[in-house]
Design brief:
mainly beta, 4-stranded antiparallel beta sheet, 29 strands, 35% strand
């Protein structure tokens, strides 16, 4: 079968009018696949549903909405209709005879997926429920892995297979050792408490690089500032409610920076707020000569303009100092301003990034970009996607933590470095 025969050009662009019509479909309807009658009432497509004929390819923006769950109809298309090649080169990265699967749902806000190569499980955060979840590769079983998790967000594993977690509640970065103990890698900089570490990447030299935006200063994802802090200036919010005895809230003290934890334990500022405001996702290129940092929107307590949903790239020299900052992408896709968040690279240096397009149905999910910043392909999901990672025994599965659910799809490439 030729590449032209495998690729359906009608999938590459969607009719804006249809997007506007389908934007009225609620996320709950898209995710949970409500009963046909209820869906007809909610979307105004009763006449189409009354027919026993398919309306069209079952995608996230067609009617009725596609059911991604194990109960849904199997995807018999060659490719999955929601794996879209924007550029022909994406056909060499996507896997034609596979489909997007929803592995689990029922979360508050899914974030920070990380793959344990030794344990063959996926770990991720359910931030509002203050827990970490685990999906077992052998039988698909999902269970609570750690609770409480101190409202952890980003997770990863280092080159020794140790879990790394960014905690909102305690405003720190921790490492879980192989002997069962835990080590605090960073909780302050220059004598001031961190904001709410968000995402982390391990470097082969033994260092850890992490972002520190203020998003954990929300009631939903952590705890607000102590009274009088930038995120709680009036003091009306009580950050001690719901926390254990003796909990001491802090006030935000630092700008939104990126830091490097040296193997000696020293914490250095590597990317300032002036360079990347409100940094979020972070990752290295396969050769560790480039650093990608996502800049998301304005957070609680921000006094400046905040991030603008861009992705930046830096050169990283032998001195471990990022230089030559450039905007990698403004994340404008088909005229839709999408919101990047989690970010990873594959072994070819392509950049994979999650997308939060809000109510622009059909533009949330995962995106793939060339090392030069050209959009190659998209993976559409029925929920906004917070973070992604590569995993599976061959590291050729893309796992997507998307709002209330966890999704996965096989690819024809592998993730670079530990997940």
């Amino acid at each position: 079968m030729t590449r032209q025969e495998r690729s359906d050009p009608t999938q590459e662009r969607s009719d804006p009018k249809e997007q506007r019509r389908d934007s009225n479909v609620s996320r709950r309807t898209l995710v949970q696949g409500l009963a046909i009658g209820a869906a007809a009432t909610a979307t105004g497509i009763g006449s189409a549903l009354a027919q026993n004929a398919p309306v069209g390819p079952p995608t996230t923006i067609t009617s009725p909405p596609r059911d991604f769950s194990p109960r849904g109809a199997p995807t018999t298309y060659f490719w999955d209709p929601d794996v879209i090649a924007v550029d022909p080169s994406f056909n060499d990265l996507a896997q034609p005879n596979t489909s997007i699967k929803r592995l689990y749902t029922g979360l508050g806000w899914a974030e920070g997926p990380a793959w344990s190569s030794q344990g063959r499980y996926l770990l991720w955060s359910d931030i509002p429920n203050n827990r970490q979840m685990r999906w077992l590769e052998d039988d698909g079983h999902v269970s609570v892995f750690r609770m409480p998790s101190n409202y952890s967000n980003g997770n990863s594993f280092d080159f020794q297979g140790r879990q790394l977690s960014c905690e909102h509640l305690t405003r720190r970065v921790v490492r879980y050792e192989n002997d069962g103990t835990a080590t605090v890698l960073a909780d302050s900089y220059d004598g001031k408490k961190l904001n709410s570490p968000n995402d982390i990447a391990a470097h082969p030299d033994g260092s850890y690089w992490f972002t520190d935006p203020p998003y954990g200063g929300q009631l939903y994802e952590g705890e607000p500032d102590a009274a009088g802090g930038p995120g709680n200036p009036s003091g009306k919010l009580n950050p001690r409610i719901g926390q254990p005895p003796g909990f001491v809230p802090f006030k935000r003290e630092l700008p939104t920076n990126c830091y490097r934890v040296d193997p000696s334990g020293r914490v250095d500022l590597v990317v300032s707020e002036d360079q990347v405001p409100d940094p979020n996702g972070i990752c290295f290129s396969p050769d560790y000569k480039k650093l990608y940092v996502v800049s998301t929107g304005k957070g609680p307590g921000d006094t400046g303009a905040g991030g603008k949903s861009d992705v930046f790239v830096f050169d990283v020299g032998a001195d471990n100092k990022p230089s030559n900052p450039k905007r990698f992408s403004d994340f404008m896709i088909d005229g839709v301003k999408c919101g990047p968040d989690g970010i990873r690279c594959d072994v070819n240096g392509n950049v994979w990034c999650s997308s939060n397009a809000g109510r622009a149905v059909g533009y949330s999910g995962a995106t793939c970009w060339s090392p030069e910043g050209k959009l190659l392909g998209r993976i559409r999901l029925p929920e906004v996607c917070g973070n992604i990672t590569f995993g599976g025994p061959k590291r050729n599965r893309l796992f997507m933590a998307a709002s209330q659910s966890l999704y996965t799809v096989y690819l024809a490439t592998q993730g670079a470095g530990p997940a």
